[in-house]
Design a protein that fits this description.
By secondary structure, the protein is an alpha+beta fold. The chain contains 4 helices and 6 strands; from the N terminus they run H-E-E-E-E-H-E-E-H-H. A hairpin with a 2-residue loop joins strand 1 and strand 2. Keywords: Transferase.
Length: 132
């Protein structure tokens, strides 16, 4: 059974995330588990997510971006209340940035997506990016 679509094209921040993510070489968007996912060819950003709640359910973050983060930056980001540990992907090195927690700093989002891209993209694709 397919997952229901969990976003609308006019959702807060989605157009900006698309613009940033699709600006990297050889990237594409697909829908996975009802959410926009950006790949190169591996997944490096996801729009929307959830976190497991203390009560055992899930807290939804419909307007957020999930990115893979380097272990050296994880601790600092986890101290920031805008970030959350996403269900399923958190143990794999991902964090979520909730766009509703504070005004969105788009240069920061761009840096986070760039770092995530560089962690998963092939070396030749990163070289293309650096030659721009």
């Amino acid at each position: 059974m397919p997952h229901p679509i969990m976003f609308r094209d006019d959702d807060m921040g989605l157009a900006e995330v698309r613009r940033i993510a699709l600006g990297f070489p050889e990237t594409f968007e697909k829908i996975s588990h009802g959410r926009p996912v950006f790949c190169a060819p591996k997944m490096f950003a996801v729009y929307g997510g959830s976190a497991k709640s203390a009560a055992g359910g899930h807290t939804r973050y419909p307007h957020c971006v999930l990115v893979k983060v380097d272990d050296s930056e994880r601790r600092a980001l986890e101290q920031d209340s805008r970030f959350f540990f996403p269900a399923y992907m958190g143990p794999l090195g991902w964090l979520g940035l909730d766009f509703e927690a504070a005004p969105v700093d788009w240069p920061e989002v761009t840096e986070l997506i760039d770092a995530s891209f560089r962690m998963v993209a092939p070396k030749k694709t990163i070289k293309q990016l650096d030659q721009r």
